[in-house]
Design a protein that fits this description.
- The protein contains eleven helices and eight strands.
- The protein is an alpha/beta fold and 307 residues long.
- The chain has two domains: 190 residues, Spore Coat Polysaccharide Biosynthesis Protein SpsA, Chain A (Alpha-Beta Complex); 102 residues, no CATH class.
- Helix 10 crosses helix 11.
- It is globular.
- The two termini are 37 Å apart.
Length: 307
């Protein structure tokens, strides 16, 4: 199989250095690397040149969805059989590409195993990167975009939606809508990923995700049922505030769910800390709040096809 690893990057030369170094040290050698760049102002291009990989500035800026569309077209034009998607924040285990290629012998789309370092925010959102491994059978319909491999024949039928973020979510919806017989699977391919380092950047990330989700839903033509479900996590709190016993019961359920997710996330965190058992609850509530924002965007763009 002819394999292309596409790394999305913007103003992250330091991370790109670590990323490309880890790709250079792969046990599997027969693959090419393309850094698809969002018009970085740092020395990202020089880093790519140092490692002898292809570097291209996106033709259409403004979001990862546009980058993926361009990456799909490049892969098809240049005759690649497989695309492995990644970000410059990623540091890959030495057998990552080998494990992805091995899994693709029996599948068309595979997801790997995301590992986070161990900060409070890592504990809060580890489930987000590993949701396809935590929720039973979810990987048969969806795997996260920065840790997946796909056979390029799919792009002849379905392309990623044009959105600022959450394009992997929209892509999975398009596969469902078009009824493509795509075989999903899992690979024992480990990658160290990272999250924003402070709450301000987390909120910026979540705002972009909310906008991207709304764009993807409008583009695909799906009703926002799952976004509405996420929104209820927060919406139930004021609705139940008139009854303290009901509110207390609901909060207890949320805390129990957070603890369960904390336990299930243990293998995806390098320096796991039991004392951060409440962290997933923080992550879930933030995710829920910004799902409400996604609903607002969706309604605002109700008369538009592609906002």
């Amino acid at each position: 199989m002819k394999v292309l690893v596409i790394i999305l990057n913007k103003d992250n030369a330091e991370g790109l250095e670590r990323c490309l170094k880890s790709l250079k040290e792969q046990t599997y050698k027969d693959f090419d690397v393309l850094v698809l760049d969002g018009n970085s102002k740092d020395n990202s291009k020089e880093v790519a040149e140092k490692y002898g990989v292809k570097f291209k500035v996106q033709e259409r800026l403004g979001g990862t969805g546009f980058a993926r569309i361009e990456g799909c077209k490049i892969a098809l034009k240049e005759g690649y059989d497989v695309v492995i998607w990644g970000d410059s924040e990623n540091v890959y285990d030495r057998t990552y590409v080998e494990e992805m290629v091995r899994a693709l012998k029996d599948c068309d789309v595979v997801g790997g195993v995301s590992i986070l370092e161990g900060s409070f925010l890592d504990h809060a959102f580890a489930w987000y990167h590993a949701i396809h491994l935590i929720v039973p059978n979810l990987h048969k319909k969806h795997v996260p975009g920065n840790n997946k491999a796909e056979k390029t024949w799919i792009y002849e039928k379905v392309m990623y939606p044009p959105s600022v973020r959450a394009e992997d979510y929209g892509f999975s919806l398009l596969l469902l809508k078009n009824g493509l017989k795509v075989r999903f699977g899992l690979a024992n391919a480990k990658v160290l990923v990272s999250l924003p380092k402070n709450f301000r950047d987390v909120l910026k990330w979540q705002k972009a995700r909310a906008k991207g989700v709304a764009q993807a839903l409008r583009y695909v033509g799906f009703k926002p049922y799952d976004v509405l479900a996420w929104s209820t996590l927060v919406l139930f709190i004021p609705l139940l505030s008139f009854n303290l016993s009901s509110l207390a019961s609901y909060l207890a359920i949320l805390l129990s769910s957070s603890t369960l997710i904390h336990i299930k996330s243990k293998r995806f965190i390098k320096r796991f800390k039991w004392r951060y058992f409440v962290a997933p609850l923080v992550g879930l509530l933030i995710h829920s709040l910004y799902s409400i924002l996604a609903l607002i965007y969706y309604v605002r763009w109700s008369n538009e096809r592609t906002p």
